[in-house]
Specification:
The chain is mostly beta strands and 116 residues long. Helices cover 0% and strands 54% of the residues. The chain has no helices and eleven strands. The strands form two sheets. Strands 2, 4, 5, 6, 9, 10 and 11 form a seven-stranded mixed sheet that branches. Strands 1-3-8-7 form a four-stranded antiparallel sheet, with no helix packed on it. Strand 5 and strand 6 form a beta hairpin. The chain is globular, with a radius of gyration of 13 Å.
Length: 116
């Protein structure tokens, strides 16, 4: 069974930083691309960042590319999202995601709240 568990969310002031982590199990982690999505209250879920297997190529949402960095550790089966210069509009639940044979798997999410 594929299982994804996020951690690292919390309450920070505007301009602060957080590091989120996703621990994966039940799959050959190094063979899969991994992504972070977020969903704010009353908004649709949107892609924050993704990282490819093997090549470690990355993709970022247009509004976060210069502030966030995604990374992965294939020995520990984890994918991290380092966030700097956080803004109130970054407030959302952040989810770890992986696609396997066209099927999406999601973690329970971790809450990020940025105060003004």
């Amino acid at each position: 069974q594929v299982q994804l568990v996020e951690s690292g969310g919390g309450l920070v002031q505007s301009g602060g930083s957080l590091r989120l982590s996703c621990a994966a199990s039940g799959l050959s982690f190094w063979q899969y691309g991994m992504s972070w999505y977020r969903q704010g209250a009353g908004k649709e879920r949107e892609l924050v960042a993704s990282i490819a297997p093997t090549t470690y190529g990355t993709t970022y949402g247009a509004f976060v590319k210069n502030r966030f960095t995604i990374s992965r550790n294939n020995e520990e089966n984890t994918v991290d999202l380092q966030m700097y210069s956080l803004k109130p509009e970054d407030t959302a639940t952040y989810y770890c995601n992986v696609k396997d044979s066209g099927r999406d798997y999601w973690g329970q999410g971790t809450q990020v709240t940025v105060s003004s």
